[in-house]
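task queued by scheduler; priority normal; single chain, no ligands, no partner chains; default sampling; output format set to structure tokens
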Amino acid sequence: MYLSENRMEYAMLRSFAVAGTILLLSAKSGTCLAANSVAMPNSDQCKTLPNMESASCLAGVADALDRVLTQYYEAARSSMRKGAADRQGIAGQDLSEAVDSLQQAQSSWKSYRKAHCDMVALLYTVGSGKAAGEAMCLIDLTKHRIRELWEIGGLTGLPEPT
């Protein structure tokens, strides 16, 4: 038991070291978060529309958020890759592994999002809110993922998502 606790402690310390390295690299680059603006799509305007138009509007917002998600994902991945290239030894290796893990996590997250939102749509059975419910699910999960990527990306140069 003691050995596994030490391994867990070591893994946590490595995680903090990787995150700290990314943060320091970002701070050194002088990136200003406010300098890069990203238009964060908003679904508020869709809520006042009739059902069919609302569903179409929400689908458009979900598509636009997917494009924003790609920006944040690419920025996080780029930041980690740069950190890996700038570091040698264990820190560089850990950051390289973090890039691989991020790619796997993003792929798994997309599969989860699809399955989850498909399930949400099915809960509407034959109701007219099926498409809108699915789109709102996509919007909510995508906004949450964008925030996660911003937080783990080590100040990627993109503004804090709202």
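post-processing summary
- The chain has one domain: 2-152.
- The mean pLDDT is 78.
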